[in-house]
Automatic annotation (TrEMBL):
Organism of this sequence: Leptospira kobayashii
InterPro entries with a match to the protein in the record: Alkaline_phosphatase_core_sf, GAG_Ulvan_Degrading_Sulfatases, Sulfatase_N
Name used for this protein in its record: Sulfatase
Pfam families: Sulfatase
Chain ranges passing through the membrane: 12-31, 43-63, 75-95, 115-143, 155-174
Residues annotated as domain Sulfatase N-terminal: 230-515
Keywords per UniProt: Membrane, Transmembrane, Transmembrane helix
Length: 627
């Protein structure tokens, strides 16, 4: 009798092992956050615990119901044990690095880019993590096996059906609230809710309320004929941060060719902007922003109704091209660019080349195509306005083996620094080609990046979930050919080299270089641009607005702005929204948050700098903060 009693106690203890582990681990990692939950947040949190318990019971009864079929039982048992092991270790491992639980966009990344997800997973593997994973798996496996192998349940069918009904109803509830409550759930509930949401989105085309890029309304611009205009080449790098470039003072020799190019007198004016910033750390917002000149704080309709770079080129009868290493099927870039006046479009899909890095092709092939096409334009006597779009510096930073100059091992910066050095060689190849073909004397070259990258500086790798300085500080330089130079222009560009400039300054500057600013068909579009032509003096007190949140892209990151030597951030991708302020020119790694020590008057003063930003009102209301 005593033996039976002890066995019952043992089974009860083992039955509670997994749910208790989940709750204890969650509170162990997030107790201070859970303690600060408001009533509504606490309701979602408790609901997630109920879902977690129902899910666990559902799994137990599924195992009990199949324990007579040995093979089915073992497969199901291993699958459930793996699910709980990944949920616990994966979720809280991610939380430890990033400060947030895996949300919709993390799971979306896994769905859209499984290859990159696998690379990232492998990068985080260690002997300790593998031992931990195996240990937890066997504990869960043995516990589940012990309590289900020979167990019977008299009212199994009706209880099972009731559990399924409860899970379906709760899942619908979480599904409809997934957008705003992605940090309120315990780990297994979190995983199920966001996997289900991504599957639903794939099947229905839903974007979690985000419109994504849409097809554009083509602006009506006239075409000047018999004009003599320069070539314009806009080079856009991907995820290239200023911080890792020798050109900007980085201690590693990552840009030797560009260093030499800047030191060589080629007749043109080489302008290196020391304080250049992106308007978003999301490609989905930043690339359209660069090409349209429309800021993410402006209505999204403007992005879809304003001329893009090539349309300004067509307005002065230039031949246009877009040669890119990227896939344009991603987020409907293909549809967005469809009627943008591009004479020659070449990308991953049209090239037929295989994937090399991220979802893009080998940039060496892209440079080869660029040289081939520009040589043809020169042969036919056509001037051009073209974009050359690279991919090298995107995670996981794959480059040709022969281009590695740092050994890849324990040095977490080596893969990225190698990719910067590889890009340096690609850009050098392009610049040498222009010189060899005698095109540099008539070609305006503008180089920039869509955004930067963080490499564990703030417990995160990537760019989308961070607005810290390393993700928004980007390189920008101009090569102004002799034909476009003047003493006044050189002086103004020299002044602006040390001032805060941004990606949305590029389109106004190109309009200025092409002499379009006085045209009546261009003027209405120019009036809506918030950027400044860099051929005019940029104000020293300008605000540079940065966001990943608008109707195009609903990443719940928040917003930030650069003002003089200060960088303000409102972070929404934490359970409780936070505000941070850094003196980024002195605190280059943004480790000293000044915000907690400010009085309320000073805080309101900084928030008031955003009083003219309509998008900001929405984001602040989400954070329950008054502007």
């Amino acid at each position: 009798m005593k033996s039976v009693h002890n066995n019952n106690i043992k089974k009860w203890v083992l039955s509670l092992l997994i749910p208790v582990t989940i709750l204890a681990t969650d509170l162990g990692f997030r107790f201070e956050i859970v303690k600060g939950f408001e009533l509504v947040q606490l309701f979602f949190y408790l609901s997630s615990i109920f879902f977690s318990v129902f899910l666990y019971c559902f799994f137990l009864f599924s195992l009990i119901g199949t324990n007579k079929a040995k093979r089915t039982y073992e497969i199901l048992l291993i699958t459930i044990a793996i699910f709980y092991t990944i949920a616990v270790i994966g979720s809280y491992g991610y939380y430890q690095y990033s400060g947030i639980m895996p949300n919709f966009f993390v799971f979306s990344f896994m769905f859209q880019e499984p290859y990159n997800s696998w690379v990232l997973f492998k990068a985080g593997l260690s002997i300790v993590s593998l031992l931990l994973f195996v240990t937890v798996f066997f504990i869960f496996y043995l516990a589940l096996r012990s309590i289900t192998r020979r167990e019977k349940f008299r009212f199994f069918r009706w209880t099972y059906l009731a559990l399924i009904l409860c899970l379906i109803l709760l899942n619908f509830f979480f599904h409809n609230n997934a957008r705003f409550n992605d940090q309120m759930y315990v780990t297994d509930t979190n995983a199920v809710v966001f996997i289900n949401r991504n599957v639903y989105n794939l099947l229905t085309g839903d974007r979690l309320g985000s419109a994504g890029l849409q097809s554009r309304n083509k602006p009506k611009l006239g075409i000047e004929t018999n004009t003599s205009k320069p070539n314009v080449l806009l080079i856009i790098a991907e995820s290239l941060r200023r911080k890792s470039m020798g050109l900007y003072g980085y201690e590693r020799d990552t840009t030797p060719r560009l260093d030499r190019w800047f030191a060589t007198n080629t007749g043109g004016n080489k302008v290196l902007f020391k304080n250049s910033f992106s308007n978003s750390s999301s490609t989905l917002i930043s690339v359209p922003s660069i090409l349209s000149g429309i800021s993410p704080d402006q209505p999204v309709a403007l992005t879809h109704n304003s001329p893009l770079f090539w349309e300004y080129g067509k307005a002065v009868n230039l031949s246009t091209f877009f040669i890119s290493s990227h896939s344009f099927r991603w987020n409907n870039f293909e549809g967005f660019f469809k009627n943008a006046g591009i004479d020659y479009l070449w990308n991953k899909e049209t090239s037929g080349n295989p994937t090399f890095n991220d979802i893009g092709i080998d940039d060496r092939k892209t440079v080869k195509e660029f040289k081939k096409h520009v040589s043809l334009l020169k042969k036919n006597g056509n001037s051009f306005a073209g974009v050359l779009h690279f991919n090298t510096n995107h995670f996981p930073y794959f480059i040709p083996k022969e281009s590695e100059f740092l050994p890849v091992g324990r040095d977490i910066l080596a893969p990225y620094d190698n990719s910067v050095r590889h890009l340096d060689s690609l850009v050098d190849d392009v610049l040498n080609f222009l010189e060899k073909e005698d095109l540099q004397k008539d070609t305006l070259v503008i180089f920039t990046s869509d955004h930067g990258e963080t490499i564990f500086e703030h417990g995160y790798i990537g760019h989308v979930e961070s607005n810290h300085i390393e993700t928004v500080s980007i390189p920008m330089f101009f090569y102004v050919p002799e034909s476009l130079r003047s003493q006044t222009r050189d002086q103004i560009l020299k002044i602006n080299q040390d001032r805060n400039v941004e990606n949305i300054d590029i389109i106004p500057t190109i309009i200025d270089f092409l002499g379009l600013e006085g045209r009546k068909d261009i003027a209405p579009y120019m009036a809506k641009l918030e950027g400044k032509s860099l051929l005019t003096k940029v104000p020293t007190d300008r605000k540079i607005f940065i966001a990943n949140n608008n109707e195009t892209s609903l990443y719940r990151v928040g917003l930030s702005f650069i003002y003089k030597d200060l960088h303000y951030m409102l972070r929404l991708n934490k359970t409780s929204p936070t505000e941070e302020l850094f003196e980024y020119t002195k605190d280059k790694n943004e480790t000293n948050n000044l915000w907690p020590n400010l009085n309320e008057t000073k805080k309101k003063e900084y928030r008031s700098l955003l009083k003219d930003c309509n998008l900001c009102f929405d984001l602040y209301s989400t954070a329950d903060i008054s502007l």
